[in-house]
């Protein structure tokens, strides 16, 4: 059985703690590798080395750092098929979905090729007699990223690209469930010219996370995962004087107005709700049709589309809509929530609980489920299911739909389908959600904007990627300078001083 490693100081290093975690194949339920779980001592040693390297890397010309990102982007493109297969093998998502995972991360790396522009300061000439002011953005030092299982390439790339481009060094702790992609990306960064030790990939569990949060050298922490863990990491990091941006759970709604194209809305809901087995923080898990006619029409269109979804392992090729969920515990939790929906009175229109795939009976597959007549007091509405389950909540009018979304404790993403520009504009302006789609189901912004939710979906003042990422990973220093050689008191120029 393969035994994985850490990536420290530019090379693969076996774990020294003696503790390991199983890396599963979600399609078969079999252990396919062992990954070491780092000790506090291993974390501290990696951080110390990263701090040494940062002095040199941070002083490197930003354009030279950007050239490393340019080469890194080229290498990601060259190794796209390899990265996608590696990712799918550990996560279970289909190859097209895995390539999308890598591609959305690559787009952030492409923005980082323009890091010198992002890092420019400001200048004021003659702010006073002979006084000039200028500001500069300087790296924080050593930063850390703790990334989730559901996007093994995209989110590490979202973190490492801006942090490294800004002159920091980084400790990356990927999910121990899907470690291989992060390790391979670290190899490619080394090949692109990143100095050894500038990116340290340390595998671990809570012991490693706490060591990162408590290490005094680490200046900032980025996290993506569930809301309870996001709150924990944000609280502990900030209590230790670190910057933190922590992104948590979601319950994303799509409002469907009576004037919407219901076929387009149904197609969008199936892709947004069931793609990647629903294991996306931007998945649409709640459909909110306005009016009985809209709700009935949407239901009639969704049923055949959902029943036609094909589920299987990534090795089945492109003829699969989604694969297994990540663990047996996730499988059991999702099925349990579907059971609770039935028990609490929701109308289960499509039932995916008993799905079994021939030849893969031990895999973590969950069939697609679709509920109608869901109410906000039900567990399937209140909890983030993170699985292939779509809930339909019926409302009578637009204001009721808007209130439903705004009253929800999460505020990651939302969408509205309508043919009316006034309604769309009003929704975008009033809804208290960080990312809004208009006739667009998963409103993940392009990489030169910025990604982030509101309410219990995010903790911290600055978002991921785009301009906010460079603000997060740098400090602003402002310099006020004055030269006396050619200036008299009161601002009168002294020509004699120029002789």
UniProtKB/TrEMBL annotation:
InterPro entries in the record: Ald_DH/histidinol_DH, Ald_DH_C, Ald_DH_CS_CYS, Ald_DH_N, Aldehyde_DH_dom, MeMal-semiAld_DH
Enzyme class: oxidoreductase
GO biological process: L-valine catabolic process; thymine catabolic process
One MF term in the entry's GO annotations: methylmalonate-semialdehyde dehydrogenase (acylating, NAD) activity
PROSITE patterns membership: ALDEHYDE_DEHYDR_CYS
Assigned EC number: 1.2.1.27
Domain of life: Bacteria
Keywords, sorted A to Z: NAD, Oxidoreductase
Pfam families: Aldedh
Domain Aldehyde dehydrogenase: 15-479
NCBIfam families attached to this UniProt entry: MMSDH
Listed name of the protein: methylmalonate-semialdehyde dehydrogenase (CoA acylating)
Lineage, uppermost ranks: Bacteria, Pseudomonadati, Pseudomonadota, Alphaproteobacteria, Rhodobacterales
Gene name for this UniProt entry: mmsA_3
């Amino acid at each position: 059985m393969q035994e994985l490693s850490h990536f420290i100081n530019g090379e693969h290093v076996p774990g020294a703690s003696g503790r390991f975690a199983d890396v599963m194949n979600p399609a078969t339920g079999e252990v396919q590798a062992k990954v070491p779980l780092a000790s506090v001592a291993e974390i501290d040693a990696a951080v110390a080395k990263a701090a040494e390297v940062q002095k040199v890397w941070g002083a490197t010309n930003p354009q030279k750092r950007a050239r490393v990102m340019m080469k890194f982007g080229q290498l990601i493109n060259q190794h796209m098929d390899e990265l996608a297969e590696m990712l799918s093998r550990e996560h279970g998502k289909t190859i097209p979905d895995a390539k999308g995972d890598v591609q959305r991360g690559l787009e952030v790396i492409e923005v980082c090729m323009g890091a010198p522009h992002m890092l420019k300061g400001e200048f004021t000439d003659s702010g006073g007699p002979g006084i000039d002011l200028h500001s500069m953005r300087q790296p924080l030092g050593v930063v850390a990223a703790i990334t989730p299982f559901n996007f093994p390439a995209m989110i590490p790339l979202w973190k490492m690209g801006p942090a490294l481009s800004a002159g920091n060094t980084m400790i990356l702790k990927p999910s121990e469930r899907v470690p291989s992609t992060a390790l391979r990306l670290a190899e490619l960064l080394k090949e692109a010219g990143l100095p050894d030790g500038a990116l340290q990939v340390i595998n671990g569990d809570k012991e490693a996370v706490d060591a990162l949060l408590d290490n005094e050298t680490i200046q900032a922490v980025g996290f993506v995962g569930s809301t309870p863990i996001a709150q924990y990491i944000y609280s502990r990091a900030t209590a230790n004087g670190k910057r933190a941006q922590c992104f948590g759970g979601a319950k994303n709604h799509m409002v469907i107005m009576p004037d919407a194209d219901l076929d387009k809305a149904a197609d969008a809901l199936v892709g947004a709700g069931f793609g990647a087995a629903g294991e996306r923080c931007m998945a649409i898990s709640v459909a909110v049709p306005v009016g009985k006619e809209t709700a009935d029409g949407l239901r009639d269109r969704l049923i055949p589309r959902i029943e036609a979804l094909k589920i299987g392992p990534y090795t089945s090729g492109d003829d699969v809509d989604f694969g297994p969920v990540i663990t047996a515990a996730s499988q059991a939790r999702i099925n349990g929530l579907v059971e609770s929906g039935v028990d609490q009175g929701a109308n289960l229109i499509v039932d995916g609980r008993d799905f079994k795939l021939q030849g893969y009976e031990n895999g973590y597959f969950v069939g697609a489920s679709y509920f109608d007549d869901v109410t906000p007091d039900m567990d399937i509405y209140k909890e983030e299911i993170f699985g292939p389950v779509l809930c339909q909540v019926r409302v009578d009018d637009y204001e009721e739909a808007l209130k439903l979304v705004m009253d929800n404790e999460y505020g990651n993403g939302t969408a509205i389908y309508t043919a009316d520009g006034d309604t769309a504009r009003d929704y975008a302006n009033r809804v208290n959600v960080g990312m809004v789609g208009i006739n667009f189901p998963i409103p993940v912004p392009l990489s030169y904007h910025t990604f982030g939710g509101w309410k219990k979906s995010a903790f911290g003042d600055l978002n991921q990627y785009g301009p906010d990422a460079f603000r997060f990973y740098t400090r602003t220093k402002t310099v006020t300078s004055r030269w006396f050689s050619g200036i008299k008191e009161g601002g009168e120029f002294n020509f004699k001083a120029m002789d």
